[in-house]
Amino acid sequence: MTNHKKRSGIRGLPRNVWAVSLTSFLTDISSEMILNLVPLFLANVLNVSTTVIGLIEGVAESTSSLLKVVSGWFSDRLRRRKWLAVAGYGISAAAKPFFYLAGGWPTVAGARWVDRVGKGVRTAPRDALIADSIDGKRRGLAFGFHRAADTAGAMLGILGALAAVWVMQGGAEALTAATFRVVVLASLVPAGIAVAVLAYGAREVRQASPEDGVKVGFRGLGRPFLLFLGIVALFELGNSADAFLVLRAQDLGTSVVGILGMLVVFNFVYALLSTPAGALSDRVPRKRVIVGGWIAYALIYLGVGLAGRAWSMWVLYAAYGAYYGIAFGTAKALVADLVPVHVRGTAYGAYSTVIGALNLPASVIAGALWQAVSPGAPFFFGAALALVAALGLMVWRPQSARL
Question: DSSP for 226-271?
């Protein structure tokens, strides 16, 4: 009984899941030190408007999304995942020094976009590598553990940024250029180590030739997956860049240190819940877990829109971490459940592309609503679409009852 528990628990996860998770852990230490400060650097130092910030964030994610589907499809054609993922992590690491050199928003935008190119190259092959390395009965656990490692790294990265901000400028509300550049320099070390860990720690999973009648490419994805993708698209249209949550917290009077503290709380809750939520989705229909997460998201965004005091954002950020912990890894496990193994890369690419491509219109809409209506308007819009999408997922009927 003891040995069985070990095999079915975290310790029994295969080498590739551990290697990819450690890489994500280190990468997020690096990335979260910088990227959560980018909107503040743009707004406080470079005096960029929220509309331009939304455009930069939206184009960055859309740039990434265009490559995710291509990279995922290419990994299916090659029947290789690992080195595409390594290349993507390498590109992102190479982009980070340009944040240090930035003296205007075009340089920041360029660095942000190149970083997202790296993410676009790596994401689908990496997720397919995880799915290829684990059996379906433990897929939720594997993706939940990966999200937990990724998010724990994000929490440590934010703590590092918080420490740098506190030492250099105390509790000042506005970020300074000097503080931002110190944080960028500190982020370079974990970014480089992350690439090495994946290159030397992961192993390629041998891919069998497709069975007769199985199409490699978009035509092989199937109707259940495409319907799920359509519902996700509706949800994502209201899911603007998290930069707007940061700006909302600052709008309510939160200091830079306070914002970073909120992000630590968010990532702590996210990391804490990801693994048990993933394991739960191995035992109950994954669809139910995701619906619960989306309803929670709608309530959280409604709360952000109605918030009138800075302290309430601490509670809402913690709840936002719970939403991510419940729904995000579970949705990735569901993708693998819906498609044949030979098109997993394409499926993960298509899924990530929808999320990334809609970040541009979602963020532009949010920026416009913020300026034309009120700072709360983008969050009311997101809450409404989340509820509609949750209803759509409730009535969606995949073929397998376990989903």
Answer: HHHHHHHHHHHHT---THHHHHHHHHTT--HHHHHHHHHHHHHHHH
Instruction: Please list, residue by residue across 272-284, b when 16 or more beta carbons sit within 10 angstroms of its beta carbon and e when fewer do.
Output: bbbbebbbbbbee
- Which among 270, 367, 403, 396 has a CA at the least distance from the CA of 327? 270
CA 367 to chain centroid, in Å, comes to 20
| Residue 140 within any structural domain of the chain | yes
pLDDT tops 80 at residue 171:
no
CA distance readout (Å), 326 to 137, 236, 295, 363:
18, 17, 11, 23
Residue 395: count other Cβ atoms within 10 Å of its Cβ: 7
Number of domains comprising the chain? 1
- pLDDT one-digit tens code per residue, 340-387: 877 888 888 888 888 877 877 888 888 889 888 888 888 999 999 999
* Residue 158 C-beta-side C-alpha neighbours within 13 Å: 20
Judged by DSSP in three states, 376 sits in: coil
Question: In angstroms, how far is CA 279 from the centroid of its own chain?
Answer: 19
Rg of the chain over CA atoms, in angstroms? 20
Domain assignment of residue 5, yes or no? no
Here the tokens at position 14 are 């295969």
Does some domain include residue 6?
Answer: no
**Greatest pairwise CA separation for the chain in angstroms:** 64
- Average pLDDT value for the chain: 84
Q: List the CATH number of the domain containing 182.
A: 1.20.1250.20
Q: How many CB atoms lie within 10 A of CB 351?
A: 28
Average pLDDT of 160-185? 83
Structural domain range at position 100 = 12-204+217-395
Query: Would you say the C-alpha torsion 126, 348, 108, 147 has a positive or negative sign?
Result: negative
Q: Which two tokens stand for residue 331?
A: 């949705």
**Long-range contacts at 207-213 (CB < 8 A, ≥ 24 apart):** 207/79, 207/80, 207/132, 207/341, 207/342, 210/342, 211/342
Q: How far is residue 80 CA from its own chain's centroid?
A: 23
- CA–CA dist 358, 381 (Å, integer): 14
Q: Left if phi > 0, otherwise alpha if psi is -120 to 50, otherwise beta: which for 253?
A: left
Residue 212 lies in a domain: no
